[in-house]
Amino acid sequence: MYPAVFLDRDGVIIKNRPTYVRTWDDVEILPDVLPALTRMTTRPYKIVIITNQSAVARGLISLRAAEKINQRLTDAIKKAGGRIDGIFMCPHKPDDNCECRKPRPGLIFQAADTLTLDLKRSILIGDALTDLQAGLNAGVGKIALVLTGRGLQQAQSLEVQQMKPFPVFDNLTQALDALYE
Ligand SMILES: [Zn+2]
Q1: I want to staple 138 with a disulfide (CB 3.0 to 4.6 A). Which of 97, 108, 112, 170 is the partner?
Q2: 93 C-alpha vs ligand 1 centroid, how far in Å?
Q3: CA 123 / ligand 1 centre spacing (Å)
Q4: What are 49-90's pLDDT values in tens digits?
Q5: Distance separating alpha carbons of residues 100 and 90, to the nearest angstrom
């Protein structure tokens, strides 16, 4: 069993888009992410992206196109010297009531089954309450909020403040440096 670092995609790895990420042109990798992911390759963690993409169920982008964007993102990270071991995507919309849309833990469980992960020893980094809740619901050992993406606004929400204390970091680099053992 491997520990994993679970990363949300939009807001942690790439910029959030109010009108969804629909094409590769909408993808802008956040400035510290490529060096941070490259440094991660020396650690014994699986690196896993978990992402809600309701734009698929809303008919704004095909499943195939969404998967292609994920593949290109993986390729870009690899080209920069990093690695992604898996991307797990929920294509549904909230009222589909699926098991995989965060804050539900389904995506994390899919990843754990596929990659043989030890969730207790794993880390989850997200920019939204729903990311943190998914981590808690799945039993991920360490969860953290980053202030990129929606993080700054989410950190101020009452729901986030009412959750048990969890660390908050400016960006992915700071979160990874602090959370690794
Ligand atoms: Zn789903």
Answers
A1: 108
A2: 7
A3: 21
A4: 999 999 999 999 999 999 999 999 999 999 999 999 999 999
A5: 6
Domain boundaries, the chain: 4-175
CA atoms within 13 A on the CB side of 177: 10
CA–CA distance, 178 with 69 (Å, rounded to integer): 30
10 in catalytic set? yes
C-alpha atoms less than 13 angstroms from C-alpha of 179 in its C-beta half-sphere = 30
Q: What is the rounded distance in angstroms from the CA atom of residue 122 to the CA atom of residue 6? A: 8
CB within 8 A of 54, min separation 6: which ones?
Answer: 20, 90, 91, 92, 93, 94, 101
Instruction: Find the catalytic residue in 8, 85, 95, 177.
Output: 8
How many angstroms does the Cα of residue 16 sit away from the middle of ligand 1? 19
Determine whether 113 is an active site residue: no
Q: Please tell me whether the overall predicted TM-score, pTM, comes out greater than 0.85 for this model.
A: yes
Q: Cα–Cα distance between 136 and 146 in angstroms, integer?
A: 16
Q: Note the CATH architecture for domain 4-175.
A: 3-Layer(aba) Sandwich (3.40)
